[in-house]
């Protein structure tokens, strides 16, 4: 108990890495152990923020995995949802196989899907869509915790991919935008519309389709 209390007080990341282990395909670093303030995890690659120079197709591949992860953190665990508070391209690393890991899990809201809401949570069974409460990367933890499901991870994933602050996927190469114009439209919809769950599923399909289309990228390197 002292060990758990220490982790909860100093940094809950080791707890998260054990609830969502890499061995069960969660996109997180392999966990080795913790002692006080020291945590040992595997090196899982370079931060995506430093991969601006890579081929655009690789970026697209990584983006697909980021979107899949946003859905998994929201839906995949039987009991809990994990809303990541520190979504940024610095906090996601990629290895040479383009496998991604979320490395900064100090700040995560864990929501229990199985609670029986009392009177203080009248809107629990309604979905919570992010409200526009300010420019840039802003959100309300209080509001997302009053609902059994929030689109926080989905919005945040779309924000780092296509939002205002050095988005991973932009600029979209002209030749690609000409033959696949809906990628841009869907990303804008994900950032601004209200049914992000539907839009995100569409983006996942659209990107899978693009990645399978060898002709789209040609033999030339598209950056
Ligand atoms: N497991 C890892 N594999 C590779 N790089 C990592 C790993 N963990 C952290 N890093 C690198 O170190 C940086 C800082 O780590 P992070 O956990 O995000 O700490 P901070 O809370 O200071 O942001 C990350 O942006 C990433 O570049
Ligand atoms: Mg960080």
How would you summarize what this structure contains?
The chain is an alpha+beta fold and 223 residues long. It has helices spanning 2-10, 13-19, 56-75, 141-144, 152-162, 174-179, 182-192, 196-212, 214-217; strands at residues 31-35, 38-41, 46-47, 80-84, 92-94, 100-102, 108-112, 127-128, 149-150. Strands 3-5-6 form a three-stranded antiparallel sheet, covered by helices on one side. Strands 1-2 form a two-stranded antiparallel sheet.
Fold and architecture overview:
With 223 residues, the chain is an alpha+beta fold. The chain folds into 2 domains: 1-42, no CATH class; 47-217, Transferase(Phosphotransferase), domain 1 (Orthogonal Bundle), CATH 1.10.510. It contains 9 helices and 9 strands. Strands 3-5-6 form a 3-stranded antiparallel beta sheet, covered by helices on one side. It has a two-stranded antiparallel ribbon with strand order 1-2. The protein has a two-stranded antiparallel ribbon with strand order 4-7. Strand 1 (31-35) and strand 2 (38-41) form a beta hairpin. Helix 7 (182-192) runs antiparallel to helix 8. The chain is globular. It starts with a helix and ends in a 6-residue tail after the last helix. 27% of the residues are buried. The model has no long low-confidence stretch (mean pLDDT 94). Residues 29, 41-45, 47, 90-91, 93, 103-104, 106 line the site of adenosine-5'-diphosphate (ADP). Residues 90-91, 104 line the site of magnesium ion (MG).
